[in-house]
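Researcher: Quick one. three chains, 1046 residues in total.
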Amino acid sequence: MRDVSRRQFLIRMTGLGAGAIGVMLSIPALGFLLSPLFAQKRIAWLTVGAIDQVPVGTPTVRYVDMPNEQGWPVPSERRVVYIVRKSDGTTRVLSNICSHMQCDVHWEPRLGQFLCPCHGGLYDIDGVNIGGPPPAPLPQWVHRITLDPVTGQHVLEVQNQLDERV
Amino acid sequence: MNAFRTLLHPSRVVTVPLRNAYRWFDERTGITQLVHKGLYEAVPHSGGWAYTLGSATLVLILLQLFSGIFLLLDYVPSVEEAWQSLHFLQAQDAFGNWVRGLHLWGAYTLILVIGLHALRTFLSASYKRPRELNWMSGALLFFLVLGLAITGAMLPWDNAAYWTATVVTNILHYFPLIGDGLRQLWRGGTFVGPITLTRTFALHVWVLPFVLFAFIGAHLYLLRRHGEFGAWVNYNTETDDPDKEIGERIRNAEPPYPTKRIERRYAAPKRTVDFFPDQLFKDTAVSVGLVAIIFIAGLIFGATLDEPADSATLTYVPTPEWFYLPLDQFLVLTPHDPLIAVGIFVIVLAGAAAFFLLPFLDRSRERRPTRRPEVLVPALFMIFAVIFLAVLGVNRLYNL
Amino acid sequence: MSTSTQIGGNLLTNGLLVAVVALVHIQIAAFLIGASTMAIVSETVSLVRRNRDERHDRLAHGLIKSSIFIFGFGSALAIFFVMFVLTGVWGKFFVSLQQITFWVFFLEGITFLFEIVLIYTLYANWQRLGEHRKARLGMLILLNVVQWWQMFFIDIVASFMVTPNGGDVNILNLILNPTSIVLTAHRTLGNIAWAGAAVALVSGVQYLRVTRRLETVRRTAPATAAAASVGAMAASAAGSEPPEAREARYWDWAGQWGAVFAVGLTLLQPWVGYEYAKEIQLHAYPAWFNMMFGDLSNVFLVQITLLGSIFTLGAAYFWRRMKASGAPHARRQGVVTAMLAFVTLFAALPAWFAPTYADVVTAHLDRPFWQGGLLNPFGNFIPYKVGALFAMVMLALWSLTAYMRANSRDELQAGRVGRRSAVILIGLGATVSVMMMVMGVIREHARQPYLISGELTINNQQILNNQPSAVGGSSGVTDR
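Model:
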């Protein structure tokens, strides 16, 4: 009987030891794996430029070099800003990132709509999804428009993140 | 006298010591027994050419491992240098581009052949008792190969890779509740960026191959344990007394037959051949043919490299690799929020689960395909759906 | 503005003329291709099984015989269509179309030459060729291939009219215009389904005819009737059974396969059709808008109702036939039929209340039905239809699979099904026929007011020279 319980003890201890190794390795590994979820974002304001000369009623492309907001810094990524000035004085600052699969949406004059080449998503000039798979409107960049007191121009600035409110 | 013999057969100078060395090695390792066990196994007589697809798959996977290791001599997994390193390979190094061609065309061929292998196994109902786990490990291997293919497509960091990475990682965010987190984990950020590439690289080069080879081991072990099933034609009875005929067949069967835990009728094939050399010859012939095709395609076509990744393009049309066209069309077919998640995670995963769990869905004793319409009709529907979706996908992309 | 050059009649009657002739023409052409496909399947099964089952031969022969009669009529109609309707009444349009698609029409003509030779050779020598069945099968396959190319060529023309893609007429863009492949895929499946439905329809009619005669025979000779009523015994007592019983079994057998083809080949159609609509949306937006939100939106809902009816009728027939043979899972099949009927009604919900989707919006009924509206669990029009279609297809697939399962386990007996089931078969055939016509109307009507989307208007067949149009404006077509 003493022998059996000793045997049991050894088996249990072996299992416990293996488990301990697993836990010790998992904690740092999992933490490392999940780190992007908790990492600090590098948010920056980037100047697009004066928008007073942007034509009203047609989406106009401006390119902005945006620093990556997570991970180690690499050369800035060039991104598209579609400026849509409306006749009522409002301005929409759309990204070209499709709300469906984030493909490269472009303005298609033939249709008078934004078209996503991946799966044929369609958006109207305001970025409202009107056809195909997209579940939501074209997202806007987080932006602000300020009046430059020196030149008297309206200057558009965007952040390197999308406006989740849509 | 001995010296005279040596003069007559000069080769004995070499062969005698070699034979002695081999005996020494064999006594310590038992290599002869191992090789014999591997080579002299009974395989069903009829349909040998159809059984070559499995070994062809293995050869192609090994080819991928081989060419992949050589690609690592140049490739740098960094968003700044990945494209540069492959561009160097393409522009400066003819043999390097050939190796990359081997890897690409090997992958295309592998997906085709592993699909045919699954189709053959499906039609002959080889997955039935006791070979359920053979099928399931094979199904996992199929998924792993598809996973390797898609992660591999993201690595060159040209436009094709960049937009593949964008779409594939974005699919995850439609997963209920934890979707956003999953996308962020793979991307290492909100957008595709430097961490996306390193994480995908780790998946492609270490994680998935590691699991793949573990399951290849399991798959081969199970194959050897139960033997090749073959097809229903190997189990037809010819005499008037089928019971007696099957009894004799089982008594005279060579290992690994008769298989346990199976209906008596399918316990042992009526005629077998040795794996070596009969079956192995056919296996080799098919593998040589396939590798020759890859060898030539790799030389002539090489591998393509698009423009470097451009996140601000307005003209690039992201296109999936041909084997993901049907799934990509599925994204076209399921619009708007609730249906996107249903389309991707319910329908596609249900299809994958049905494929994986096939042995438990098709539990009849019947092995002939026409006598199993309960699986053949849905499978035909799925196969036709995949073909049509692929054709329509090609058409859609041509006209964009 | 050029003045009208058309000959006589007004727009409405001329349009109607085209519609009627074209729709009949399409039904005939589709049947011919589907019939040769079914004949190939029947012959192949017979050859593979090596059992010389005379029913397979009879079905294939019947299909070829009917093809001959219909081919003769169809050819005459086609000549009438081209010479009088298209050239005479719509001359300006047709000549410009001919010029654009000259080579396609040229190849189309050549396929007819081959088809005539093959189909008449097969018809005239069917029995003689019976001694060389593989050769006969080879000829059938050749015929089918020729017919398929014939369809593909005309599809190029038909799809070009809907999606000319800015009228950029280089030959490759003409052949691979955005909807040509999709239309061909749609029709390849549709033809076979339609041939199946036609076989079902004819078999249903014949079954009704034969069983009525059988009843008369049995009333006069009760002893033989008792023997014939038991399926298994009837075979052994073949000498004593009336020939009508054998006939009834044949038509029951043929009708079942007709229904299987009709349902089975329709299963993929919603997927292909969706892609078709998708291409029209991307390349001829006004036409798509017409279909989905304009005048045709309600017709499209009728289309869904018809599609659901095809599946429901098919499932109902499978259920009846399984029940008549006492197959084990007949009750489950009945449940699937009921579910299909429910999904069909559910899918067509708005169609019953509002003429067009625009009317739904004006009446502020574009809300979920639990809020008193007419639509849609998901809050959108399209996903709702997609969901309903998907459910329909899955249920129909289940039904077909269950039926084939019963068939493979020899649970079904021919000649025992009731006369009402034959009526279901006739209904199935008629529904597929109507569905094809509605489909044709939608395709032809969608591009209004254009004959070629964005290029050529219907009024006076006027060619738009340098006038901005909804799609592409002036382009290659108008320069001709």
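Residues 1-38 of chain A form one domain.
Researcher: Thanks, that's what I needed.
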